[in-house]
Amino acid sequence: MTSLRRWISPALAAVVLVVVVWRLGTGPFVSGLEAVDGRALAAAAGIGFVTTVCGAWRWTIVARGVGLRLTFPTAVAAYYRALFLNLTLPAGIAGDVHRGIRHGRDAHDVGRGLRAVVWERAAGQVVQVVLTIAVLSVLPSPVRSSMPYVAVAVIAAGAGLVLAGRRFPRVTAEVRGGVLRRNALPPIVVATTVAVLGYAAMFVVAARTAGVDASIVRLLPLSFLAILAMVLPSIAGWGPREGATAWVFSAAGLGANAGAATAVAYGVMMLFAFLPGAIVLVAGWLPHGAAVFGPEGATDG
Prior knowledge:
Number of helices: 14
Order of helices and strands: HHHHHHHHHHHHHH
Number of domains: 1
Radius of gyration: 19 Å
Strand content: under 5%
Distance between the termini: 46 Å
Structural class: mainly alpha
């Protein structure tokens, strides 16, 4: 049963990708690949650096809050490695699992290391959802009229989680210490906001690269919808991204083909932006690799 569940998510992502190719053909995918040029890749590398630093900063805050030591340079290197693995392996979470286990082993507490990553990613996704609702409520988009109902549903879900959390005092204590403490929550919100805006900027660059000339005001809410869909399980990043982007572009009157081409260009830019993670991964296999990047459980010097 566990093996079956492991393959369900990639299988669903594959189905989405097949349906998109079946409906649109391979033309948008080829166009998206061919459109990416040096300027787009340079922009992706710069934006990717900012978003990675923000994610690593958020991770160090949460990790220290739950009692684990983590240096900032080591966090940046590990975050690059995790993002690269997320983009190249099925399901899209292998990199996060890897950094949680690696950090936990170095800190001699694998369980806490994994939980720190879970709380860090969960905090980031909560802030991302709030930002997405705010943007989609203000700017025109195909789902703008539905946002009040979505907001109510999110608030209700949040209240349910708070009530359920009372049954697990240890979990509640870790979340409070890692995420909700006074000197942790503001920087977590700032780091996540900058990261999400960075990903949105990269999406706009991808759209421009793919030949979409719509205004930024029109593209921004579409980027938030597409980025939110990327939270779903995928096959090395592919599947939900292309399906969601094709749909939102079609609903916004920009054409499903343009949406698929934008998604492909965005995927290529993302992979290039996080290629430094491959260097970190290979360096970790080499002798003295840990000495180069530092043990992930080390204290700040």
